[in-house]
Design brief:
90 residues; mainly beta; ATP Synthase, domain 1; 9-stranded mixed sheet; membrane; ATP_synth_F1_dsu/esu; ATPsynth_dsu/esu_N
Amino acid sequence: MSSLEVTFVTSDRTVWTGTAAQVVVPAVDGSFGILPRMQPTLAILDRGNVRIIAEDGSVTEREVQGGFVSMDSDVVTIAVDQADRARSAS
């Protein structure tokens, strides 16, 4: 099974790093998912939630206000100014 090597950082810390099955990001032109073996991608992020689904099924979700995501050869880099815990829907 293929997987993604993910590094999710802010300007002052690493938010999450590890192996994931899928990543969902809020790009400026719409939310999209990143899966293993996808074409190289570079996108600017908008306000919304970054969601990382680890290989064990656990989910990490953070609210971001912008940034960028890069994916090439199953290596995903997410860089943002700030990443807050996602608010749950009430």
